[in-house]
Write a structure and sequence with these properties.
The complex is a heterotetramer of chains A (507), B (96), C (352) and D (97).
Chain B: H1 2-25, H2 29-53, H3 59-80, H4 83-87
Helix pairs in contact in B: 1-2, 2-3
Chain C: H1 2-25, H2 29-49, H3 53-77, H4 113-139, H5 149-152, H6 160-168, H7 170-194, H8 205-228, H9 236-253, H10 262-282, H11 295-323
Helix pairs in contact in C: 1-2, 2-3, 3-9, 6-7, 7-10, 7-11, 8-9, 9-11, 10-11
Chain D: H1 3-24, H2 28-49, H3 60-89
Helix pairs in contact in D: 1-2, 2-3
Classes of the chains: A mainly alpha (507), B mainly alpha (96), C mainly alpha (352), D mainly alpha (97).
């Protein structure tokens, strides 16, 4: 006789980090680090259990407070949620390990910062961010999604300003204002949808919505708001400064996970709620903006002079790929599922590769005190592991054959060509070439002889764990390519394309 | 009776609008702050009238909160702006 | 009766819009903030007219009271000590969002007319577009809503808004308290490094006795609002906002800064969320679900959660106010407390 | 004009004005004020639509959502103001009092 419902496993990825965050805040000091590390296996196990249940028993739904959907809030896990949870668990675990070393080294007032225990502040914020992400990926209620979005934003802001530098504060304020505008637009959409349909539950909305003017307005408001929060070109202005000036583990989290949160909501609403006749006329808008983002972000990355800014602009570019899904994935068609799952796979792969790159950039900054690209050769000798990780992650970002990014881009290319979107196909290829171009700027450093070794520069020691965890994450991005088949099968569970397939399999 | 009560409430609202002119024109910060104080008082009265007129007694609680919290901004104001500077045109870069 | 109410509504909404525009365009920032406080008061009247008394209470306490105090407090920080030059509007020509120059001394028009024109065009078209959608919704007689009547019987409270907030959608509220926690974490991390001490303004006898007189009343009303929240409009947030406002009053008049140990303060800050989580997890015992209350216990548990939440949220609000204060320790030459998470204002302990 | 229509339209205007102010106003404090007003506009639409049928009590769900929204808004405002304060006080001042 089970003490609780079996689907109660959905609660733990949210509650475990949240409760730990509270304990870490109260106890403070060294305890926050210990607790933060201790909760990692619990969260990983919780997401694994959720995935295991979804894999074997199909989509899971859990009514919080035992109030079923239209009245209460439900948690819902299908293949897409599980993929996102796994991504969050994986990157979160690596970043946690990395942060132990990173913040141990930076508690002292070394670079003109006021002395404060940044580590003790990092852990509660990060654990709450982790909790907010899982809450977002599991929520099945459009207003609750708004609350999780705000939770995510405020946690991200708190993390960005941890360094306390003027640049960080400025970037944080810009980020906050943009994010607030985005969530208000989203909330306005929620207001219209509740006013018209009297429900907030995604599943009931998906069943009850009819094509009317209010729904179209809601779609537009939510789309613009979420595109702003996901930093889609030309609404990306807030991202590079925020991601570039945050502490390295935070940049990895922001680029790898946080922007995926708002993208996830848009993906879910677009395919689960809004009827096709509304989304179809709009398909080109996000896709074209996505293509523009790929080109513009890559160009900026090509001319960036700091490694972290290069990686941040690369994020702007890679986020563009995600938005191609709205142009390429048609509900109901088989190529639709291919494009949809390819984009999600790309998001997972990007999260790992980009996370690894930011962690590597943080290690370089930590060791050398700067991340100027032209001075990288002098650093590369001291950090062979980190530069190897950069190499591996770059392979993942460029989308060379064994990686998941390759599988994803290849599929997208096929769908684009099959659908007659020659322009998008060209951009997909071009984006890969541009990525190779800007990443080779960094890689070249590893193979270049340092001209004059500046003996005046003092290099700090780097904890081993920082280097190994970075390499681990980079390798995950590489190995994900081999696991792309099971991931795509996982995504099929509960996806908008799954019902006919299940019916075929039944008889 | 209700017509009378609601009429008075409406009249008080018009008073608030008239008071806005003082906030608008200033000229000193003190003028603006004092005019806004008027709204706390008048708002309380409007709420009490509405509570009667709409026969919704819960509105009296709102009136209570209005009356209690209206001074907050004023107290913050007098603590943060020395009276000397607020009295002699301590407003923020007026053109005049 | 209807006609005078219609006039009332018309004047109220018109004033709201005019005040909102003036908040954006008044050249004087102080005026803008005073008008923003007035805006909160008027909005509170609007909630009353719409029958949303719970919202009106929260707006009166948070929207008009505390947010206004936050803004006034922040504006005061832009005046430096002994610097009588008021902060002018900083214009960014390049369209940058953040102007990092300190306020300039030279007064200049806040918005050139081209800016106003663009503003008008954008605001006008968004209004027209959204109005075209909202008007049919607002006049339709078909108003779908979530049915709660049957569930109310098992909710443990009789005020439907409290039932939604703390029972049916308690999960939203849980996350919302987490949002407040995050705000405190961020604000106090920003305060920690840069808190400074300024010379205090002397507090006159009138102010001191006013605060002594009003504080007990504020506490009493807060308890009343909390207690009545289960069956009438009111509840934890409104009560907490009242208590928080009382705390702000106490802080700015520097009579007796309430002091408590840093550790205790942290415990009090998280107590609300922690108890909420524990009650939620307790619901999972005995084949229940997260945040499920047994119907017989629902009323007691909701009251428990609300009471602890009130204390925590009040403290949160006070600390948010501290985070926007111009100086570290107000009212005395106390050294600021540099430890993270500690706010100098509320703390008596000295680290240096 | 029913109260619902009146207040819902006001909400729409406030939302548009606040949103435009966020983009067009130069000063940061005014941007933060604008966000608050845009938020109030959305809340007004929410609550006004909850009161469409005059003979039944208003729908409590949007009221609860708006209460949540107000608390979220005050949190975000406080963070924004703290950031603003930090910007205006940076960086010349000595970090320790």
């Amino acid at each position: 006789m089970p003490v609780t419902h079996a689907d109660a496993c959905l609660v733990w990825p949210i509650v475990a980090p949240l409760a730990t965050a509270l304990a870490a805040f109260v106890l403070g000091g060294r305890w926050s680090t210990r607790l933060g590390v201790a909760v990692v296996p619990i969260v990983v196990a919780a997401t694994a259990v959720v995935t295991w249940r979804v894999w074997h028993h199909g989509p899971q739904t859990y009514s919080l407070g035992n109030w079923p959907a239209p009245l209460g809030i439900e948690l819902h896990a299908d293949g897409l949620s599980c993929a996102m949870l796994l991504m969050s668990a994986c990157i979160g675990a690596v970043v946690s390990v990395y942060s132990v070393g990173y913040f141990e080294g930076s508690t002292t007032a070394s670079r003109g910062q006021p002395q404060k225990d940044t580590g003790a502040q990092f852990w509660p914020l990060w654990l709450m961010l982790w909790s907010a992400l899982h809450a977002l990926f599991l929520s099945a209620d459009i207003f609750n999604l708004y609350v999780t979005l705000e939770l995510l934003t405020l946690a991200a802001i708190g993390l960005v300003v941890l360094t306390g530098t003027r640049a960080a504060v400025e970037a944080a304020l810009r980020y906050l204002l943009a994010a607030l505008a985005g969530s208000l637009l989203y909330l306005a959409g929620v207001a219209l949808m509740y006013g018209a349909h009297g429900t907030l539950d995604i599943a009931s909305l998906g069943r009850s919505v009819t094509a009317d003017a209010s729904l179209q307005a809601a779609l537009l408001l939510m789309m613009v708001g979420l595109m702003l929060k996901t930093a889609l070109f030309p609404l990306h202005f807030w991202l590079p400064p925020a991601h570039g000036s945050a502490p390295a583990p935070v940049s990895a989290l922001l680029s790898g996970l946080v922007v995926k949160g708002s993208f996830y909501i848009l993906l879910r609403l677009w395919f689960d709620v809004f009827p096709q006749e509304f989304t179809r006329p709009l398909t080109l808008l996000p896709a074209v903006l996505g293509a523009a983002a790929i080109l513009w972000g890559s160009m900026q990355a090509l001319v960036a002079d700091r490694l972290k800014m290069l990686v941040a602009y690369s994020t702007v570019a890679q986020l563009g790929y995600l938005f191609l899904v709205f142009g390429l994935a048609r509900p109901g068609s088989d190529t639709g599922f291919a494009a949809w799952s390819a984009v999600v796979l790309f998001a997972l792969s990007h999260a790992c590769a980009k996370g690894a790159l930011f962690l590597a950039a943080g290690t370089i900054l930590h060791v050398a005190g700067h991340d100027r690209i032209r001075d990288l050769p002098a650093v590369s000798r001291r950090l062979p592991t980190t530069f190897f990780a950069i190499g591996v992650a770059s392979v993942g970002l460029m989308g060379l054959p064994p990686t998941a990014a390759f599988v994803a881009k290849w599929t997208l290319l096929r769908v684009a060509l099959g659908g007659g979107h020659i322009g998008l196909a060209v951009v997909i290829v071009l984006g890969g070439l541009l990525a190779a171009a800007y990443l080779f700027r960094v890689l070249a450093a590893a193979f270049t002889q340092p001209g004059v070794v500046d003996t005046n520069v003092s290099y700090r020691k780097v904890p081993r764990w920082m280097e190994y965890s970075t390499l681990g994450l980079a390798l995950v991005s590489l190995l994900l390519g081999l696991a792309s088949y099971p991931v795509i099968e996982l995504l099929r569970i509960g996806s908008p394309w799954s019902p006919p397939i299940v019916q075929e399999a039944a008889p | 009776m209700n017509v009378l009560i609601l009429g008075v409430a409406f009249f008080l609202l018009v008073n608030v609008v008239a008071g806005l002119v003082r906030v608008w024109r200033g000229p000193t910060a003190l003028d603006r702050m004092l005019a806004s104080q008027l709204f706390g008082t008048t708002g309380t009265a409007i709420l009490l009238l509405l509570a009667e007129g709409l026969s919704n007694p819960a509105l009296r609680d709102v009136a209570l909160v209005f009356a209690l919290l209206a001074p907050i901004a004023t107290v913050v104001f007098v603590r943060r702006w020395p009276l000397s500077s607020s009295a002699n045109g301590g407003s923020f870069h007026e053109h005049e | 009766m209807d006609s005078s109410l219609a006039w009332f509504d018309a004047i109220l909404t018109l004033t709201l819009v005019v005040v909102a525009l003036r908040v954006l365009f008044a050249q004087d920032l102080f005026q803008a903030i005073v008008l923003f406080i007035v805006f909160g008061l008027l909005l509170s009247l609007a909630w009353c007219r719409l029958g949303a008394v719970d919202v009106a209470l929260a707006e009166a306490a948070i929207g008009a009271g505390l947010t206004g105090a936050l803004f006034l407090n922040t504006l005061a920080t832009t005046r430096r000590h002994g610097d009588q030059a008021p902060p002018a509007e900083t214009i960014d020509r390049k369209g940058a969002w953040v102007d990092d120059k300190l306020p300039t001394l030279r007064p200049r028009p806040s918005t050139p007319w081209t800016g106003r024109l663009a503003f008008g065009l954008v605001a006008g078209s968004v209004t027209a577009w959204m109005a075209a959608v909202v008007v049919p919704l607002a006049v339709s007689s078909d108003a779908p809503r979530i049915a709660i009547d049957e569930a109310m019987l098992r909710s443990g409270v009789t005020n439907p808004v409290t039932a939604v907030l703390l029972n049916f959608r308690a999960y939203d509220t849980l996350l919302e308290v987490a949002v407040l926690m995050l705000a405190v974490l961020t604000v106090s991390s920003l305060t920690a490094g840069s808190a400074r001490v300024s010379k205090a303004l002397p507090s006159g006898p009138v102010l001191t006795s006013f605060v002594r007189l009003i504080l007990p009343v504020v506490v009493m009303v807060a308890v009343y609002v909390l207690w009545s929240g289960t069956k009438a409009p009111g509840g934890a947030f409104q009560a907490a906002a009242l208590l928080g406002a009382g705390g702000v009053l106490l802080l700015v008049t520097d009579t007796q800064s309430p002091s408590c140990a840093r550790y205790l303060r942290r415990v009090l800050l998280v107590a609300g969320l922690a108890v909420f989580l524990l009650v939620g997890l307790g619901g999972m015992l005995g084949a229940g679900r997260f945040l499920e209350y047994p119907p017989a216990w629902a009323g007691v548990l909701i009251t428990l959660v609300e009471t602890v939440l009130t204390v925590s949220i009040a403290l949160v609000l006070v600390m948010l106010f501290v985070g926007t204060s111009p100086t570290g320790a107000e009212g005395s030459a106390r050294a600021s407390d540099e430890t993270p998470g500690a706010t100098p204002l509320v703390s008596r302990e000295r680290t240096s | 004009m029913t109260p619902t229509l009146n207040y819902a339209l006001t909400g729409v205007v406030l939302f548009s004005v606040g949103l435009s102010g966020l983009f067009f106003c130069a000063h940061l404090l005014r941007k933060i004020l604008s966000v608050n007003m845009a938020g109030s506009g959305v809340f007004l639409v929410f609550v006004a639509l909850a009161r469409r049928q005059p003979d039944v009590p208003p729908d409590p769900v949007p009221q609860a959502l708006v209460l949540t929204g107000i608390v979220v808004a005050v949190s975000a405002t406080a963070v924004a103001l703290a950031l603003f304060r930090r910007l205006t006080h940076e960086p010349a001042e000595e970090p320790h009092g």
